[in-house]
Each structure stands twice: as structure tokens, then as C-alpha cells.
Amino acid sequence: MKGTILDFSIQNNNGIISGEDQKRYTFTGSEWKDSVSPQRGIKVDFDLSEAGQAVGVYKELNNSSYSNIHTHSHTEKSEEHYNIFDWFIKCLKNYANFNGRARRKEFWFFYLGLVVCNIVAMVIDAVLETEVIFYGITTLALIIPFLAVSARRLHDINRSGWWYLISLTGIGIILLIIWWAKESDTNNNQYGNTAK
Fold this sequence. Notes:
The protein is of the alpha+beta class and 196 residues long. Helices cover 38% and strands 16% of the residues. The chain contains five helices and five strands.
């Protein structure tokens, strides 16, 4: 079915689509199948679940309203051609999205970007002799997207994001690193379709 996104809340990770049948359908962020966050006015194709919710929501091809919102959409590249900056930005766009799945590349490249940002912040603090002001600001700004991508990475291997709490034991971080490095689950699971 075709429709138009009426609204999408990043905080609640859900949205509303006005279908071509003039009915409204809700959808969750995990059902959105595009690398750019859903925006109001985007024309979409979607299916309906038995409960009447929109599932498998894709951006409609040749969508002029979408290209007006994102003037660079015609030059967007597929995830196979992403560099570290693209993966980092993708995670920032999903700033507080704890739903769905994240493949290994997405997690580890974001983590690498986070480390680089922290090093740059520490250098700025050292040069300006500001103790840890820039480092603290950087860490606070990136903690939520790091927790979100960590949860999505655990979802990708079919584990609850709540497993992240074992890092509080200290020794649990070793198990988390093993899980974060594990190959993606190739099957669809309760957290969404395979990320690859």
C-alpha cells in the first residue's frame, strides 16, 4: 500500500502514515527500511500486519517531496560504500533509538569515531588547559547514541539490550565485547529484519 508519513517521533520511535485509502496507520522505527530517519511528508510503500499496523515501510521510489526535504538524496550511497564518517553520522541520526538492529560495522565504526572525538577533546583540553571540560562535554553528548547503538548491536545477535547492564560488574565488559564482535544473526528476529 502507498501512503504519506504524517508524523514521526524520534523519542517514542513511532510514527503515523496516512494511507492512500484515507486511513491512518501507526508504525515503529524498526519497520522503517531506509538509512535516513523518517520525515513528515515522505511518500512511502508499506504492508499491513494482522493487527493493522504498517510494517516494512520503504521510501517510495522517485519521491519528489523526499528530495525536497533532503536535497542530497540523489547522491546518497548505500551502506556498502559508507566510510567511518557515514557510520558515525548514521548513529547520530538514530541518537536515542534503542529499537531495531545494528550490524558490526555500524557499532565498531561509531565506537572508533567516539574514541577519535574523545582524543580530540582531550587534546583541546590540554592545549587550552581547561581540565576536562571539552572531554566531559563530548562524553555527555555521545553517551546516549553509544548506549543506543550498543543495544541495537545486541539486538542484532538476538539478545536483549538490557544485557548491557552486565558491564556494571566490571568483568561483564569482556562478554559484551565478545557479543559486539559476533557475526550478525542472519535471520529476522523479534527486534527486526536482518541489518545486512
